[in-house]
Amino acid sequence: MADDVDLGARRARHAERPVPGAETAVAADGLAVIHTHDAGTSQLDRRAVRPDLTREALLLLGLFIAYRLGRMAVAGHDELAFSNATWIWDFERFLHLPSEETMQDWALHWPSLVKSANWYYVGVHFPITLAFLAWYWWKRPAPEYRWARQLIIVITALALVLHVAMPLAPPRMLNGLGFLDTMNVLGPTAYGENAGTVANQFAAMPSLHVGWALLIAVVVVRTLDSRWRWLIVAHPIVTMLVVVVTANHYWMDGIVAGLLLGLALVVTARPPEVAPVISWRWPRAAATA
Questions:
Q1: CA dihedral defined by 166, 169, 174, 180, rounded to 10 degrees?
Q2: What is the pTM of this model?
Q3: What is the pLDDT of residue 71?
């Protein structure tokens, strides 16, 4: 009997010892409920659900190859591309949009500024998009990454359809309207002597430079909580100005890219972690509310 009492006492003392990484809560009926947790559990869970890197890389590489092949397949429609360019130019004047040629003339007063715009056009588009996807794959919850990746796939596919349906010569090819090919004159250029064999320069509508920049800004603003997230809005604004100053795109190319992103947001399933609408309040105010 004494042994039974001693054993029971030892068990009671053992039960009173705190469990490492555990929180004890008292339920309504007075029973202690122990919730265990580990500092590394959330990180392990995130890694467990993180999409496979090899598969994701192959998926994005396949998308890039398909997009390039699609652009090349519709190359050669020179007459239609220049005819569409005339129509876009006239339509913009009908809408009273600012003249891209006037804006370029103003910017050319500072050649170094225009050359910087050339570098931005050539060197920022793909690297920042890849960095954005890599960061979301590594640091953000998997549903947010999948949402961003799916949006890029959808908007790129929609853009390819428009490239095929509406070949469009960029403004830099319209010498008669006074445009200057700033990349060819000031450098660097994205199109070498054999550009026609690797890219379709008549795929100006829509501008994926603007479309992807807008997409990055929307995803960052809707998934991050820091007030500094709003700085990313500068990226699509600068990109829109760059594509116009360098005469690579019309205003309408960027506008249509924004419309395609809106369509992509509608048809792409949004994860429950992402709010249905953008919160325009500061995080602290939103939390208080």
A1: 140
A2: 0.75
A3: 65
